[in-house]
Amino acid sequence: MNDILKSVYSYLAGKNIAGGKIYPEIIPQDTDLPAIAYTQTNCNRDSALQKDTGFARINLQFNCYSDTFASARALGKQIISALQDYKGNMNGSDIQAIFIRNEYITTGTLKQSYDTERFTSVIETEIQFMEE
To answer: How many structural domains is the chain composed of?
Structure first.
């Protein structure tokens, strides 16, 4: 069984989105923008009477950071283009479907940048996959 987060990371890194600067949770301090941080917000697994079915739904949030509104929005659109309606083998993970659940732009201080404000395109996804 492959780790779904590793599969998604490898898939997106292979598309060279944000120059490959895609990180779990927090972007390292002093990383040049644009960059992306992804976070698992939850994961639900389906069960039958006797055992788990192996079917899971994970929600991932992608925070796409950049210095300008247009660049942050373009980065978010690249994530959407790469993931929306994907189905099949993603680096060893059996993806049943990927849905874009929400998209918005915000400004604010990055968790890893203590002195400046940036634009952030937030993409919220649901990935349905088989764990077994």
So the answer is: 1
**In this predicted model, what pLDDT tens digit does every residue of 71-107 receive, in sequence order?**
999 999 999 999 999 999 999 999 999 999 999 988 7
Q: Is 123 inside a domain boundary?
A: no
- Please check whether residue 22 lies inside any domain of the structure: yes
Mean pLDDT of the chain: 89
Q: How far is CA 99 from CA 21, 63, 84, in A?
A: 23, 16, 6
Q: Give the span between the Cα atoms of 50 and 8, in whole angstroms.
A: 30
Q: Is residue 108 part of a domain?
A: yes
Domain that holds residue 101: 4-118
pLDDT for the residue 115: 43
* Cα-based distances in Å from 78 to 1, 83, 96, 121, 122: 28, 9, 21, 11, 12
Question: pTM of this prediction?
Answer: 0.88
- What is the Cα 24 distance to its own chain's centre? 9
Q: Specify whether the backbone of 40 is left (phi greater than 0), alpha (psi in -120 to 50) or beta.
A: beta
